[in-house]
């Protein structure tokens, strides 16, 4: 396909050839041939039609399965920065509350893990104290059990009990002797009643002293021995448990407690990230700085995941993509070839450019055409996305 520039070059070449022929006629006098540098040099050119497109653009949609547009925060033609919120679906208030709760849980998990480390020394000291107490308890239980193999009381205790019994028996003898003076009196005689009372009380004290002495002289019964054995077993088990607890924390935090605290923190972090993602999915943010070129929805409409809701483009950086470059012409091109680009809408504008990329595969559609991207040296003021462009690409042959 040859455009105006090529036809102009062909016309100049034809006129030059005509002048050369004319120089060879007329009176047999030859006309001097013009110098080579005076003849316009012909450069082979490949022509194509193209479309003006942004270097970066995107059809934006929501990531969630579906929702109602609550806020549409931009208008067509509005310039936005990367990360600006473009629209928001309903449910963001609930999502923010869930995020706040997750963040509170994260703070608690972080504090819990910090306490595990900070209280490690205190936990170790407490475990060491309980270990010492368990050792003492076992010694006491073993000592009590050992006594069951002998008597119920020590020799000192037995001596004391014997002395108590002797004194009690002597008191009984004295009371009996005293009562003998009044024994034959009437039963309602006061002196007789007083002497009898003293005698009865003395006998009670003597019987109690005798019981205590006999009990102390005897051996523990099987039930008492069994109880003592049980007490030793319990004390031994308590000591072993205290030893295990101390061994777990003597060099730092309890591994199980530390592992649980770390797992709680990891879970809390995941909960926060999940809550943030839920909130983020309810908002459409600009993935790059650009201009909102088209809005396809309105506030209150239901949208689904993947549905294009608006177009965003970086209109400060435009390029031209060919639409009808044939397979014959594309075979003559190389990346880096220079080009001259004109536009239907801007007849007085001509822009230089360079071939930036050549598609490795033909486009779908009628014919075999390849897409070639032309990087423009400058962007004309009134150039718009979608305008028709005409490209003359200089090739080397």
Describe, in plain words, how this protein is organized in 3D:
There is one protein chain. Among the domains are: 1-42; 44-55 and 317-397, Beta Barrel (Elongation Factor Tu (Ef-tu), domain 3); 64-89 and 282-309, RNA polymerase II/Efflux pump adaptor protein, barrel-sandwich hybrid domain (OB fold (Dihydrolipoamide Acetyltransferase, E2P)), CATH 2.40.50.100. It has eight helices and 16 strands. It has helices spanning 4-22, 92-118, 120-147, 155-180, 190-217, 222-249, 255-281, 327-330, and strands at residues 45-54, 57-60, 66-72, 79-80, 85-89, 283-285, 290-295, 302-304, 310-313, 318-322, 325-326, 338-343, 350-358, 369-370, 372-376, 388-394. The strands form four sheets. Strands 1-10-15-13-12-16 form a six-stranded antiparallel β-barrel. A four-stranded antiparallel β-sheet has the order 2-9-7-4, with no helix packed on it. Strand 12 and strand 13 (350-358) form a beta hairpin. The longest helix is centred in the middle third of the chain and has 28 residues, at 120-147. The protein starts with a helix and ends with a strand.
């Amino acid at each position: 396909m040859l455009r105006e520039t090529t036809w102009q070059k062909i016309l100049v070449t034809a006129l030059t050839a005509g002048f050369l022929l004319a120089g060879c006629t007329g009176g047999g006098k030859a006309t001097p041939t013009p110098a080579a540098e005076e003849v316009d040099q012909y450069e082979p050119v490949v022509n194509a039609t193209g479309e003006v497109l942004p270097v970066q653009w995107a059809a934006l949609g929501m990531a969630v399965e579906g929702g109602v547009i609550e806020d549409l925060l931009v208008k067509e033609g509005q310039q936005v920065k990367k990360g600006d919120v473009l629209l928001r679906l309903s449910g963001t208030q609930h999502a923010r509350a869930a995020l706040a709760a997750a963040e509170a849980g994260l703070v608690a998990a972080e504090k819990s893990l910090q306490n595990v480390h900070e209280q490690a020394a205190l936990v170790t000291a407490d475990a060491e104290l309980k270990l010492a107490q368990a050792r003492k308890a076992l010694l006491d239980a073993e000592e009590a059990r050992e006594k069951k193999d002998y008597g119920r009381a020590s020799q000192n205790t037995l001596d004391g009990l014997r002395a108590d019994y002797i004194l009690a028996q002597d008191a009984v003898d004295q009371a009996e002797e005293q009562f003998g003076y009044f024994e034959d009196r009437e039963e309602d005689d006061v002196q007789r009643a007083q002497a009898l009372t003293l005698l009865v009380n003395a006998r009670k004290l003597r019987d109690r002293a005798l019981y205590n002495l006999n009990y102390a002289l005897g051996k523990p019964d099987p039930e008492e021995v069994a109880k003592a054995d049980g007490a030793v077993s319990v004390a031994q088990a308590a000591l072993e448990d205290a030893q295990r607890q101390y061994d777990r924390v003597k060099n730092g935090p309890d591994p199980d407690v530390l592992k649980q605290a770390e797992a709680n923190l990891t879970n809390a972090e995941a909960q926060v990230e999940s809550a943030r993602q839920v909130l983020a999915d309810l908002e459409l943010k600009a993935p790059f700085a650009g201009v909102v070129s088209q809005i396809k929805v309105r506030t209150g409409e239901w949208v689904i995941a993947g549905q294009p809701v608006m177009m965003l483009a970086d209109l400060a950086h435009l390029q031209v993509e060919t639409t009808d470059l044939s397979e014959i012409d594309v075979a003559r091109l190389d990346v880096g070839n220079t080009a001259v680009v004109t536009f239907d809408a801007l007849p007085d504008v001509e822009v230089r450019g360079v071939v930036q990329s050549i598609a490795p595969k033909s486009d779908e559609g009628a014919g075999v055409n390849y897409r070639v991207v032309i990087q423009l040296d400058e962007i004309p003021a009134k150039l718009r996305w979608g305008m028709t462009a005409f490209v003359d690409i200089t090739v080397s042959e």
